[in-house]
Amino acid sequence: MCHVRKSHLFGGICLITCFILSFNFYWPRRYQLTRSGSPPICGVRVSHDTITPLKGQRTFIISAYKDNREGNIIRILGIVHHQKVKELYCYFCCNSNTNVYPTRAGIDIHQDRFGFPYGLADIICTEPPDCRAEFVSVHWSPSEVVHNLTSFRIRNRDPGQFTANFTVCFSTMFGNYSNVLQFIQTIEMYKILGAQKVTVYLNNCSRQMEEVLQYYTEEGTVEVIPWHIQRYLKPSKRWRYPSDGTEIGYYGQISALNDCIYRNMYSSKFVVLNDQDEIILPFKHRTWDTMMESLQRENPKVGIFLFENHIFPQTVVSNGTFTDTSSWNRVPGSNLLQYIHREPDRPNYFNARKMILDPRAVIQTSVHSTLKQYKNSKYVPLETALVYHCRGPLQRNLNRSSLIKDDNIWRYNESLIRNVNGMLNHFLT
Ligand SMILES: *[C@@H]1O[C@H](CO)[C@@H](O)[C@H](O)[C@H]1NC(C)=O
Ligand SMILES: *[C@@H]1O[C@H](CO)[C@@H](O)[C@H](O)[C@H]1NC(C)=O
Ligand SMILES: *[C@@H]1O[C@H](CO)[C@@H](O)[C@H](O)[C@H]1NC(C)=O
Ligand SMILES: *[C@@H]1O[C@H](CO)[C@@H](O)[C@H](O)[C@H]1NC(C)=O
Ligand SMILES: *[C@@H]1O[C@H](CO)[C@@H](O)[C@H](O)[C@H]1NC(C)=O
Ligand SMILES: *[C@@H]1O[C@H](CO)[C@@H](O)[C@H](O)[C@H]1NC(C)=O
Ligand SMILES: *[C@@H]1O[C@H](CO)[C@@H](O)[C@H](O)[C@H]1NC(C)=O
Known about the structure:
The protein is an alpha+beta fold. It is built from six helices and 23 strands.
């Protein structure tokens, strides 16, 4: 089982370590690759991409994270073929830069793959004792020459301080996304509600949206993560596999959401998982800060809060009497202040939920709930908040009087109009 020879590094602890690791991992051999004094062998070819293919291995690495919650665990997020990837090894470059130990990885494919051949996997390796690797490489074979491999910087090594109370994660933006006005209003609403940051996994958007993203990036609100998944896999626009030869669901939404949680694990107190056409709107409170403070006080064991999704169809328009919105006509896209009617829930139908969560309480997430976590989940009742989801109708045959009037968004009209106008003043001139 354990083929590690005695060495100055591991001598005394080999037995214990092998005993612990033999449950899931083992070191197949030990590789002495360079003598000290040679140029550093680690991190020679470091990937700076968000999706990096391992050639011929049906594996695409997203990011490597130290998981401080689980001892010496390095969790590498990667997209893998669910049947063909059975064996992977992590190559750590330990601090001396002289020895590299391939360790066998555990491969935990996330349960929510929705029938597609490719899905997100946690590639889990135990870092060798006394090793504080800055980089890690991955390969299916345990006998590679490490400097031939691409390495990935291990993030989250040093948990810093919060730089945000709330970070919103958008899963993939794709298909020439061009709803500029709604996007600007949505970002300004998040800021009013208490967000400091929005992480956008960008596949494709219109020219003008690129400029908007650039504006918010310079402002410090938006972080754009390039997400060119179609270079490597055939992405589907559907979430469930339609047996049409595509390879991964919804442009890799699940992968983006999980990466966003780990990326923001120590920089953000809360992470908000919703799409770009959704806003979690409180009823009882004015901001997410006060709402979450109250929800956490009432539910100390809960780390994942789920909010009901409600469709505000863009086919039913209500013009409020708001002044100062004339410049909005010059911006393409929908105007949120016109949509104040929501569809009623359908009985016997899955009513989706979206989440505000403590990222440190989550191990794996899906879209409408988490899959593995350290803390409990709670459904937040409709009296407290809902997900304002402004899009085309799901129940097309309903007329205005069959919808529920809900003008909660208008509570924010003054600050929203002021802030959108402030942004447009800079942006349009
Ligand atoms: C490493 O790469 C070199 C050239 O890039 C190649 O000649 C060599 O065979 C590779 N070694 C292994 C073990 O893959
Ligand atoms: C988080 O919220 C608190 C209170 O609402 C505020 O004082 C603090 O500045 C916020 N933190 C950040 C990083 O914006
Ligand atoms: C988005 O896709 C269109 C059409 O394929 C292309 O012309 C455009 O350059 C792409 N934009 C980005 C930002 O990739
Ligand atoms: C993208 O959207 C913009 C705005 O709606 C449109 O002008 C442009 O032609 C679209 N581009 C493509 C490649 O579809
Ligand atoms: C709302 O205003 C738009 C023009 O901005 C107009 O086309 C539409 O008919 C108005 N709808 C209602 C219900 O007043
Ligand atoms: C709206 O739909 C309801 C139920 O389908 C119907 O009774 C009502 O007459 C409709 N109202 C209008 C204005 O079409
Ligand atoms: C706009 O907001 C103000 C307070 O901020 C409120 O008094 C007013 O009723 C709101 N307007 C509408 C149409 O709801």
